[in-house]
Amino acid sequence: MKITFFDTKDYDRAAFTKYDGRDGLEFKFYETKLCEDTVELAKNSDVVCVFVNDDLNSAVIEKLHAFGIKLIALRCAGYNNVDLAAAYGKIHVARVPAYSPYAVAEHAMALLLCSVRRIHKAYNRTKDFNFSLNGLTGFDLYGKTVGVIGTGKIGKAFIDICKGFGMNILAYDKYPAPMDHVRYTELDELFRESDIISLHCPLTSETAHMIDQESIARMKKGVIIINTSRGALINSEDLLNGIKERKIGAACLDVYEEESDLFFEDFSGHIVNDDTLARLITMPNVIVTSHQAFLTEEALSNIAEVTVKNILDYFGSNVLENEVCYHCGLLENCKKKRKERCF
Ligand code: NAI
Prior knowledge:
Elements: E1 2-5, H1 10-16, E2 26-29, E3 47-50, H2 58-66, E4 71-74, H3 84-87, E5 92-94, H4 101-116, H5 119-127, E6 145-149, H6 153-164, E7 168-172, E8 183-184, H7 187-193, E9 196-199, H8 213-218, E10 223-227, H9 236-244, E11 248-253, H10 275-282, E12 286-288, H11 297-315
Parallel strand pairs: 1-2, 1-3, 3-4, 4-5, 6-7, 6-9, 7-8, 9-10, 10-11, 11-12
Helix pairs in contact: 1-11, 4-6
The structure holds 1,4-dihydronicotinamide adenine dinucleotide.
């Protein structure tokens, strides 16, 4: 079984190498992302193993199918970068639904604490022996209201952390799952009442640009927005305008809608052409990390373990427990519910 990996870095290879050569698995690692220009590299493989910014559009999928690729093994939970409708009936798609919700939830809280206690500024100051406190005044999280959008695995882990800080919790989810000390509400109320808003829902046609000029207008002045989910949940131009107008108090961004050509690479010493991102980064109240929330040893090890299991399940003719298709969640008569493959 030949598996071609795209968009790999040292830390990915370190987690996967121990499985190479075992159980008939043969790995080939590429640093380049999978897209129409690079798809030829997948020739002669059985599986492509991809990450969040590989572009599996219908043209790429057609080529992969023509090469005889049988499985797209995502090393991540989100699958918005795969044209599932194009893949259906041709190539199976499996993902790693949860590798460490704690990693992402803890990163969201790390960004929030960094922002409200100005740690990013204090760190730079004390490095320069500047011990002044001017401009570092923060605020207590205790007693503040946090609005959590998406209360799945990561949203729940984040809520648990917020409970520990003594925060009031409002939540919105398309499929609410009631929890103690959490009040589900409509989005409008969540926008109006929250001091802090944290996004933990997937990127879909329904959720794309859910944070835009219109929703920002409904928010409290000084609101802090945290996005560790997917960049396109936020209209970045509208976010920037909200910051310029002093409506948004701070933004903590681990993801960015145009991240795919930038994140995971070193552009220091280069001129970055994305003016919106460049302007956001110059703001004193914006913290950007480059899709790093998942990056813990525990998560990397779980990603490798589940990805390999998905591949072995596929070739072992087992049920593909972590398969996704464009019918998922939509069909009454879902094959996966009957413990069958999607097609
Ligand atoms: P999950 O599937 O456990 O939870 C997602 C929740 O969103 C579910 O409760 C679902 O009902 C809800 N939802 C679906 N459609 C919605 C809508 N229209 N409005 C509101 N809620 C909606 O997923 P999990 O593991 O909690 O991950 C959440 C997201 O986090 C992923 O979709 C992915 O985009 C992102 N993520 C980011 C990582 C990073 O490193 N920054 C790493 C892993 C995931």
